[in-house]
Specification:
The chain is an alpha+beta fold and about 625 residues long. It starts with a strand and ends with a helix.
Length: about 625
């Protein structure tokens, strides 16, 4: 008989692994329930982590003591920092990963924690008593008691796979769907919906001709995700790029009458920014080619992920069309692509902690909330795991604001605005991109994680050392003046206008084409401080340069963030009866009653709430 737990996590994907890992790290007794112990942390779609905005999230997870960054580093086969031609707010780390190694590293991390137990079974419902969750029930007829439950069911809730005109139940290829939970939740009063996602075919890398493709190598000096002591790559595998063509598109169109995308079989919304290949050639019919990324699945496999060719067309159409792509003329298919529809629960039914409003101590994380992507799921798992532990130990909840983390932006977007299509994070969703850079995630979040008991003293000492190094380099830049004689030769070399009097180095580094490295030879004091801290950790000198170079922009965003914080500090009582507040619009009353914003700041972000509605609320609150 299974004992009672502090936290039960249902589902062992990216969200479930993070939730179980962090709750156990904080001291909770955790049970991770999964339908298949062999698919823990499986990369269901592409074998990669990070990317634009997503890489920032992985860095934030790592800074908070999560596992995704460490596991990504240990299983990486290639690493690239994207958008290096743009400003540092846009720099985004991305790794290509060994799919099997990624899963095994996550399982190993979980198994090393004695507070994590495992149970292979299908969860078919939740146990509720007086509007409070008290455990779960499984397909084996077992009831397991728990103080809190986190649902991270991915695409498994009543999952339906589409391949051409064929349909079959499943949460993933060759894995059965999960049933019972949706019905339980709907009976309790939850609103549910359907979403769609898809995946491309996998092919035999031995059958491809890479000489007809563009090679895409990793960075020459690869970085890594984790701020801990994981090692950067010494050896990397290349990806490749090729393109579809008009002949490819013509062959794909021959299957449109049997496509679930077009024949009405699929009625739910798919990810707007990751469309299927048939959707792309239909929506962008003026384009005669689309990029296809050829991504290896690992060090010791020939399996290839055909990124950009997601499809649910009949398998014979997939293969014929794929063989018209340069390099794919003799391609052998391992597995066809397919689409999958699944249940989700509109996230406006959640609090900022990811606890449901209807049932106490019940948390949702990942695709059950309408998101798409490993990184989006992982950060929700982390936050739900932290808050489930805090709640069961009667400690204050942990909420990140929009100016503290991309994670804060994501969760606030979900519970305030909801989503009717799979939600994906972009840098454009964040108002404070310059504050929320991937390079300073540790400075922003590790001290908080230390206070929560997730990060240890060594991690905090590293932050204090980094701040000291940045401060000393800034001091040297601010107090060192350089004459035109010394400076102008370098400025001329950099195509930067000369100076006619002595200037401080801190003013020179703000020029767009001048780097800290350019200024080091001009000052013995700067050189000494710079080399000392660079030898300890290169990220310290990088941080010093970014902070002083973009100081004016950072200060402006900090002022805006302070204004937002003042609105976030104005709490709205949860029992407020908006229908009794005169002068509120009828739309405002309906949406405020449905979402029940916790603060004035959150109320301002609800679609349809006007400035005059906010003024009425402020008056009502005595402001």
């Amino acid at each position: 008989m299974l004992s009672e737990y502090d936290v039960i996590v249902v589902g062992a994907g990216h969200a479930g692994c993070e939730a179980a890992n962090v709750a156990a790290k904080m001291g909770s007794k955790v049970l991770l329930v999964t339908m298949n112990m062999n698919t823990i942390a499986q990369m269901s779609c592409n074998p990669a982590m990070g990317g634009v905005a997503k890489g920032q999230i992985i860095r934030e997870i790592d800074a908070l003591g999560g596992g995704s960054g460490i596991v990504s580093d240990k299983s990486a086969i290639q690493f690239r920092m994207l958008n290096m031609s743009k400003g540092p707010a846009m720099w985004s780390p991305r790794s290509q990963n060994d799919r099997m190694l990624f899963a095994s590293e996550w399982r190993l991390m979980l198994e090393k924690n004695p507070l994590v137990d495992f149970w292979q079974d299908m969860c078919t419902g939740i146990l509720v008593e007086k509007n409070k969750v008290i455990g779960v029930k499984t397909s084996l007829g077992i009831s397991i008691k728990s103080k809190s439950v986190i649902l991270t069911n991915g695409t498994f809730l009543n999952g339906l796979i589409h391949l051409g005109e064929k349909q079959f139940g499943g949460g993933r290829a060759a894995e059965k769907a999960a049933t019972g939970i949706t019905e339980d939740l709907v009976a309790l009063g939850f609103e549910s919906g359907r979403m769609k996602t898809g995946t491309p075919p996998r092919v035999d890398g031995r059958s491809l001709d890479y000489s007809k493709m563009e090679e895409q190598k990793g960075d020459e000096n690869p970085s890594k995700f984790s701020f801990s002591d994981t090692k950067p790559l010494n050896n990397q595998l290349s990806c490749h790029i090729t393109y579809t063509n008009p002949h490819t598109h013509d062959l794909l169109r021959t299957g449109f009458d049997r496509s679930p995308m077009f024949n009405g079989a699929i009625k739910s919304s798919g990810p707007r920014y990751c469309p299927s290949i048939e959707d792309k050639i239909n929506r962008f019919s003026d384009r005669d080619r689309h990029q296809v990324f050829v991504e290896p699945e690992g060090w010791n496999t020939v399996e290839i992920y055909v990124n950009g060719f997601s499809t649910s067309l009949p398998e014979e159409v997939q293969l014929l069309a794929m063989r018209t792509i340069p390099g794919f003329e003799n391609a052998k298919m391992f597995r066809p692509g397919y689409a999958i529809e699944y249940d989700y629960f509109p996230p406006t039914q959640l609090q900022h902690t990811l606890e449901t409003k209807l049932i106490e101590n019940l948390y949702f994380a990942g695709q059950i909330n309408g998101t798409t992507g490993y990184e989006e799921a992982a950060c929700q798992g982390l936050m739900s795991g932290i808050n489930a532990h805090l709640k069961t130990n009667e400690r204050d909840s942990f909420i990140l604001s929009r100016n503290e983390a991309y994670i804060g932006v994501l969760i606030d977007d979900l519970i305030t605005k909801g989503t009717k299509e799979p939600y994906r994070m972009f840098t454009s969703r964040a108002e404070f991109r310059i504050l929320l850079r991937q390079d300073n995630a540790d400075l922003r979040l590790t001290p908080i994680a230390h206070t929560l008991g997730i990060q240890d003293d060594d991690a905090l000492n590293k932050i204090q050392q980094k701040n000291l190094g940045v401060s000393e380099i800034h001091g040297a830049l601010r107090k060192t003046g350089v004459s035109p004689v010394l400076l102008n030769a370098m400025l001329e070399e950099k195509d930067s206008s000369p100076v006619n009097q002595q200037v401080k180095l801190s003013s020179v580094i703000t020029r767009p084409n001048i780097t800290l490295q350019d200024l080091v030879p001009l000052s013995d004091e700067l050189s000494k401080v710079y080399e000392e801290w660079k030898s300890i950790d290169e990220s310290i000198t990088e941080q010093a340069e970014i902070q002083i170079k973009y100081e004016g922009y950072i200060e402006r965003e900090e002022e805006q963030a302070a204004k937002l914080s003042r609105l976030e500090d104005l709490k709205i009582p949860q029992n407020t009866e908006y229908q009794n507040i005169k002068s509120l619009s009828s739309e405002a009353i309906e949406k405020l009653n449905r979402i029940k914003p916790a603060t004035i700041g959150q109320a301002t972000r609800i679609s349809g709430i006007t400035p005059s509605d906010i003024s009425v609320l402020l008056v009502h609150l005595g402001r």
